[in-house]
Design goal:
- Among the domains are: about 60 residues, no CATH class; about 70 residues, no CATH class; about 180 residues, Alpha Horseshoe (Serine Threonine Protein Phosphatase 5, Tetratricopeptide repeat).
- The protein is built from 23 helices and 17 strands.
- A hairpin with a 2-residue loop joins strand 15 and strand 16.
- Helix 18 packs antiparallel against helix 19.
- The protein is globular and about 80 Å long.
- It starts with a helix and ends in a 10-residue tail after the last helix.
- It catalyses: L-lysyl-[protein] + S-adenosyl-L-methionine = N(6)-methyl-L-lysyl-[protein] + S-adenosyl-L-homocysteine + H(+).
Length: about 650
């Protein structure tokens, strides 16, 4: 029993306890010596094996120091924030005169610490997205995301349960289908074609409005009536300001002042994942263009017209079907204008507050030894708590999704009093400052003044390293606008930008042909094509150009398929250099690339290199994806297997 206990402790990584258990067993056997000689030898052999395994694991550097590893112990929020639902006590909700609402660290936060774990208030699956697969030369099943994921909980499922009333909505179970029907699909079902035409934002707006029926309908109706009576002037509505954007409210009966300092909070100051919080997300009515507001109003008008027609049809038939009557709720029939105003407000909110729910999709064939993956946009959701995070082009958090649940973890050490920041898309490692500022201004209506934007110099001459051209003579970066000159003052090389762009387009076409050969299994021809592309790329692209990284990654995959692990690892090392320049050393993209390198080194039995790479990949992916992700589980299996191997003489991969 104690021998098995020691083995379990070693597997769990509790080396100190395992070592003590082994010592106790040795002392126990030495004292008794009552076993038969053969049994005693077997036990001694097992003890020796366990001691050796403990020593090997103790000699390895830890993936994280103990204090840092502790940050990953909480898969769920064991203690919820008293002020903010779905948030940890490590953050507090504050207001800033310039930034508005924001989240601030209440203590020092370690990388990987769980800060927010919030289920979407509403999520709508994106129709028409086709998952990537490698069957283009065989047959095309035309499988869309809507066929693979539950339309309510977004869980991946291959055996969907379709709705009885429409051909679009599909669910993972009867329970999900029933809940969706009760909450919103009874109204949405006959509107399927129209909702697909009007788009996801209109669909989200309708579903948000329908869910208010299950909260305080009277209070919601009062708020919406105030908007109509104030000419739908959202930010200037006096009654609305008093009702939920107020800083203080006069109580005439007892002449006291009740303070509600932050919009979206209830009277006790609690910010929850509910319709009140959603309603208080800013619609930015004054910032949207007249054209955008007109299109939103037109979409809502078309939807309301169809809702009214559907209600009239059901009432005219006089049928007793519970499903038909469910499409006409008392709240919906009372005043359709109220629901129209609500939907219009939500459509205007979504441009700045909608969150893309993504999933990690593995690409390539099942026979592929190296796992490729990419982020796929699965749905659009509303997360009231996540929406509290302000933007930074160099954020200190990372977001991941499991079905409809968004998880925010610290991506770096955050000091007490610092703001918790999230990236809305424009990241300093993905685009230059001018492009970032333009995107943020056009979509989110603000000029970013984060530290990255404040300190970064405009690099209009050369552009980002991952897009830069290099001199054919001396390999220095080319600079300029229409005509590019070598950055080396001792070199006189110059060339037109149009010429280099044309060469890049030709190269992209050649790489595409090589990738097609790779997918069809013609590995030798693919490698020959890619090596020619590599030689061409080296003559005019910087070593950190994204096209260079793509070529190296494809070569690594081709050599891995042939079992040449040494060459595969060498090309992946070059690809890593490009990924680090483009996305940063601690990015999730870097973690995915390190994961691929770990697979190659693992298959090539390069034990020390593989263990070192596993640790690097795990350190990054734990922060971005959490300890339950598929990649983390796979890395742990690889490490465990390598540590159980007998000593292998050092040598090249092969």
């Amino acid at each position: 029993m104690n021998l098995r206990k020691a083995e379990c402790l070693v597997t769990l990584g509790k080396l100190q306890e395992a070592s003590q258990t082994v010592s106790d067993l040795e002392s126990d056997f030495a004292a008794k010596q009552t076993l038969a000689a053969s049994s005693f030898q077997i036990l001694q052999k097992n003890l020796h094996r366990l001691k050796k395994k403990v020593q090997e694991k103790e000699s390895l550097p830890e993936t994280f120091p103990p204090s840092l590893a502790k940050a990953f112990e909480d898969m769920d929020l064991k203690e919820e924030n008293e002020q903010i639902s779905s948030a940890s006590p490590s953050v507090s909700l504050c207001t800033d005169p310039l930034k508005g609402r924001c989240l601030i660290a209440t203590k020092d936060i370690l990388p990987g610490e769980l800060l927010v774990k919030e289920d979407a208030f509403v999520s709508v699956l994106i129709p028409g997205e086709m998952p990537h697969h490698s069957l283009e030369n065989k047959w095309d099943t035309r499988i869309a995301i809507g066929d693979l994921y539950c339309h309510r909980c977004l869980k991946h499922t291959l055996a969907t349960v379709p709705c009885d009333g429409c051909s679009y909505a599909k669910y993972c179970s009867q329970e999900c289908m029933q809940q969706a029907w009760e909450f919103y699909h009874s109204v949405e079902c006959p509107l399927g074609a129209l909702l697909l035409t009007l788009g996801v934002f209109c669909h989200v707006a309708l579903r948000l409005t329908l869910l208010t029926r299950f909260e305080d309908v009277g209070k919601v109706t009062s708020k919406l009536r105030d908007e109509i009576s104030n000419n739908i002037s959202f930010p200037k509505s006096k009654n609305l300001v008093k009702m939920f954007n107020y800083d203080q409210e006069e109580n005439e009966e007892n002449d006291k002042v009740v303070k509600t300092p932050i919009p979206g909070c209830d009277i006790s100051g609690k910010y929850e994942n509910n319709y009140n919080a959603v309603f208080n997300l800013l619609p930015h009515t004054e910032n949207h263009s007249p054209e955008h507001k007109f299109l939103c109003a037109l979409s809502v008008s078309a939807l309301c017209k169809e809702l009214k027609a559907a209600s009239s049809r059901v009432l005219a038939t006089g049928l007793n079907s519970s499903k038909l009557k469910a499409t006409v709720t008392p709240e919906l029939c009372a005043d359709l204008n109220i629901w129209g105003v609500a939907m219009l407000r939500h459509m205007l909110q979504l441009q700045c507050n909608a969150q893309a729910i993504t999933t990690l999709q593995h690409t390539g064939s099942k026979e592929s030894i190296i796992a490729n993956s990419r982020q796929v946009r699965l749905a659009t959701g509303i997360f009231p708590v996540v929406s509290l995070l302000n933007h930074s082009c160099s954020p200190n958090t990372s977001m991941s999704f499991t079905s409809t649940v968004a998880t925010i973890r610290a991506a770096q050490r955050i000091r007490k009093g610092q703001e918790i920041l999230h990236c809305y898309g424009p990241h300093q490692n993905r685009m230059g400052i001018a492009e970032r500022q333009q995107k943020l201004r056009s979509q989110y209506f603000f000029d970013c003044s984060c530290p990255a934007c404040h300190t970064e110099e405009l690099r209009t001459a050369a552009g980002p390293r991952w897009e830069a051209f290099c001199c054919n003579s001396c390999r220095a970066i080319m600079q300029g606008d229409d005509v590019l000159s070598c950055g080396n003052r001792f070199c006189t090389e110059s060339v037109s930008r149009d010429h280099l762009v044309s060469r890049l387009q030709d190269l992209q076409q050649q790489v595409g042909m090589a990738q097609k050969l790779l997918r069809s299994g013609k590995l030798e021809k693919a490698i020959q094509q890619l090596l020619r592309c590599q030689q061409d790329a080296e003559s005019f692209l910087s070593i950190e150009h994204t096209m260079v990284g793509e070529i190296e990654d494809d070569l690594a995959q081709a050599y891995a398929a042939l079992g040449d692990w040494q060459k595969s690892a060498a090309h992946l090392q070059k690809s890593l250099r490009v990924v680090e320049a483009h996305h940063g050393p601690s990015s999730v993209e870097m973690g995915h690339e390190l994961f691929k390198l770990a697979q190659v080194l693992f298959n090539g039995f390069a034990v020390p290199e593989a263990l070192n790479t596993i640790q690097k990949a795990e350190k990054i992916l734990l922060v971005h994806c959490g300890p339950l992700s598929d990649e983390i589980q796979e890395l742990q299996k690889m490490r465990s297997f390598l540590l159980d191997l007998p000593p292998i003489p050092a040598g090249p991969l092969g």
